[in-house]
Amino acid sequence: MSTDSLNKGVGALPPIKWGIALLFGLTLAGVLTLVPWYGLTHGFSGWAWAWCFLLLYANGMSITCGYHRLWAHRTYRAHWGLRLPFMIFGGMALQNSILIWATDHRRHHQHVDHNDQDPYSAGRGFWFSHIGWMLRHWETGRNDFSNGRDLMEDPLVTWQHRHYVALAIATNIGLPLLLGWLHGDLWGVFLLAGLLRLVLIHHTTFLINSLAHMWGARPYTDTNSARDNGWLAFLTYGEGYHNFHHIFERDYRNGVRWWQWDPSKWLIFAASRLGLASQLKRVPDVTIHKARVAMQLKRVEAAVTCPSRSRHLPDLERLKEHLSAEMAAFQATLAEWARVREERMASARERLLARWEEARFRDRTREIERNLKVQCRRLSRLATELSGPLPQPA
Q1: Which one, 71, 107, 113, 255, has the greatest CB density within 10 A?
Q2: 194 within 8 A of 173, measured Cβ to Cβ
Q3: Distance between CA 59 and CA 53 in Å, rounded?
Q4: Is 378 exposed, middle or buried (CB count within 10 Å of its CB: 0-12, 13-18, 19+)?
Q5: Among 241, 193, 194, 188, which Cα is nearest to 213's?
Q6: Which residues, other chains included, contact 184 with Cβ-Cβ below 8 Å and sequence gap of 6+?
Q7: Is 168 in contact with 91 (CB distance < 8 Å)?
Q8: Is the pLDDT at 152 greater than 70, yes or no?
Q9: Torsions phi, psi of 16, nearest 5?
């Protein structure tokens, strides 16, 4: 049994991480007291509000497009011109270094909802998954970089990890103060672009670990607690389609339907058009539709076979027959899809074989040409050794 389980059983709790607890507590207290006081007594300039939301969006998109979809899941490759701002503004969000954030997140996906292995398991409640997992020295929160060997080979990631504190201070204190000084509104810009922005980016991002595992629909899978929620997607730069993400984590998109809000997807796609991103990974549409249909069938079957619900259904036998027909149609579709894939693989093998045969033919032809050229040179040398040129053939 893990340390977490023992602590939970006897009521003892691990020691508090006082540095992190003070950070969250004091920044929230400042937003609830200093920000409204300053607004009422001095007022905020337009520049203060503008920089607040510009930096908020820069932080959010750097977490979603950079920390999450690029480094944690490797859903695409990015040019250093994109990775560098993601590293800077992601670090400004004060959610730890890329190395720690991404390895924690990979463990979350590997052990989702497992209370003794998932670092921020929603099974331990809203408070724990939202912020509580960071406030104490939980056993599940220990740094473990064993799943991040690829990250440790990235010089940008390792540089940020070594200099994270300096980077965090420079961007969270130095940058807002500099912007405030430039606009003649030192404390107004600092309170909004520094303090309010930090609290907003913290708690909107944290909603994905907490509320996105508790509120919303599960159209793709019910094997874990992750939900799709359009309202959360709007607050979290497209990350709210969490049910999709947990079953298709290698896809660079979260919102796959045309009407779903996912600015992170659009930014990555735009970057690919500009040559700043490449190798964007997408789950085939057939696979996505298959997951949706399988979940729909599962829910209909549960409704038809559940005694407490089925006895209230009119014409139950007809519904069961309809369900059986739909299941048969689904199996037939899956079988057809398997045949199509096999045919494609066979065709690919044939094309590969044809290319190999063509390449082999070209190689043998070149070899014959070389042999003829060598023979021609030998005959030329032989003719030179003779008293005169060889007689022409009749």
Answers
A1: 71
A2: yes
A3: 10
A4: exposed
A5: 241
A6: none
A7: yes
A8: yes
A9: -75, 145
Whether pLDDT at 312 is above 90:
no
Long-range contacts (CB closer than 8 Å, 24 or more residues apart) made by 263-269: 263/61, 263/237, 263/238, 264/61, 264/64, 264/65, 264/69, 264/237, 264/238, 264/239, 265/238, 267/61, 267/65, 268/65, 268/69, 268/75, 268/76
Confidence of residue 244 (pLDDT cuts 50, 70, 90): very high
> Does the structure show a pLDDT above 70 at 219?
yes
Count of CB atoms situated within 10 Å of the CB of 170 = 15
96 close to 105: Cβ distance less than 8 angstroms: no
**Mean of pLDDT values over 54-80:** 98
Q: Work out the pLDDT band at 5, boundaries 50, 70, 90.
A: very low
Determine the Cα–Cα distance for residues 57 and 93; give it in Å rounded to an integer: 10
Sequence spans of domains, the chain: 3-283, 290-370
Measured CA to CA, the distance from residue 291 to residue 340 in angstroms comes to 18
* Cα 102 to Cα 107: distance, rounded to the nearest angstrom: 9
Tokens linked to 194: 């520094």
| Tokens read off for 144 | 């473990």
Question: According to the model, what pLDDT value does residue 386 have?
Answer: 59
Inter-axis angle of helices 263-273 and 46-61, to 10 degrees?
80
CA 385 vs. chain centroid, Å, equals: 75
Mean pLDDT value of segment 246-255: 96
Closest of 62, 68, 58, 56 to residue 87, by C-alpha: 62
Residue 275: is it exposed, middle or buried by C-beta count within 10 angstroms (0-12/13-18/19+)? exposed
> Span 241-245, mean pLDDT?
97
Residue type at 105 in one-letter notation? H
